Amino acid sequence: xxxxxxxxxxxxxxxxxxxxxxxxxxxxxxxxxxxxxxxxxxxxxxxxxxxxxxxxxxxxxxxxxxxxxxxxxxxxxxxxxxxxxxxxxxxxxxxxxxxxxxxxxxxxxxxxxxxxxxxxxxxxxxxxxxxxxxxxxxxxxxxxxxxxxxxxxxxxxxxxxxxxxxxxxxxxxxxxxxxxxxxxxxxxxxxxxxxxxxxxxxxxxxxxxxxxxxxxxxxxxxxxxxxxxxxxxxxxxxxxxxxxxxxxxxxxxxxxxxxxxxxxxxxxxxxxxxxxxxxxxxxxxxxxxxxxxxxxxxxxxxxxxxxxxxxxxxxxxxxxxxxxxxxxxxxxxxxxxxxxxxxxxxxxxxxxxxxxxxxxxxxxxxxxxxxxxxxxxxxxxxxxxxxxxxxxxxxxxxxxxxxxxxxxxxxxxxxxxxxxxxxxxxxxxxx
Length: 431
What we know:
7-stranded mixed β-sheet, 5-stranded mixed β-sheet
């Protein structure tokens, strides 16, 4: 087809075509919108069974490889990679809930997730109740209604480092035959794997620690593969009842993996949350060094937090690695290999001191991101938590002088030197 008898434009389009097999040790990047079918029946079989690959929005070998990788890291049965962490939360919630349903959520969650629940899902008829005292299993239990379809929380909360008692809250969810969904972004599977403690679904913003370099967006949903149609079917009719046109139910086709299959077949592709294969590749490469980075970042964070706690200019440090943190004992139970690298501290000088800090640091980067190899700083009160009421900010430990740090992999001596230079004038002012 590309010999001398074909035209120039035809040769330009087809001459590179190659269906030969090749074995690459690195995950190959299938940067293609669609895939060629072998014959007529191959296409029909793909559309009838979902086997193989036809279009990247519904499946791609690069994306699938990274899904297997992330599911393995979280001790999950299967995973679905999506375009962002926000897409992961949306996909997980819409997999379990619909119009007329109810979600119980921790108050201590990412502001984008809170806005999703209060503004967007509310418009779709999904109601939400928020729990302030997430350490009290009875508070969770009492918030559950007959139409509750999931409990939602973060393993390590942003910004005060509140720790979720995963086993206790998952037991409440099990009693109600509903899943506990845990956003494990801040902890990562290196520090804790919520599915091993009873959670049913884990979500991540893969843009953060999993990718690790602040260069791409992505999200992932990981499922435990233990959906029990007999026990929980009454809370998930969309999984146990026949589909349109008499299609066998999702549960009958996928068994314990019904939830994640529904997310893959009916939620993520239809809402268009598909990731780029290139982004998937970079997330997969980042995940290969996840343990090395998080171990180093956690060690750096503990040293920085201890240094800050000893400074006169610092009013408080909310890092769960410190023995003074109210959830330190709970962290010792769940977190292994470190205590994470994201925490807040509060300067005595209030808003003016916080402004001077972010405008004076050199090694720390002032930006809205976390989980980067670089150390970052942000002022929550005027950025991520700006739309909360003062009462809500007080509840979350966000005060005018509060700053959030995301500690990177730099030499910790350089981080402390940067902090020392910036806080020296503040210490003199306090004195």
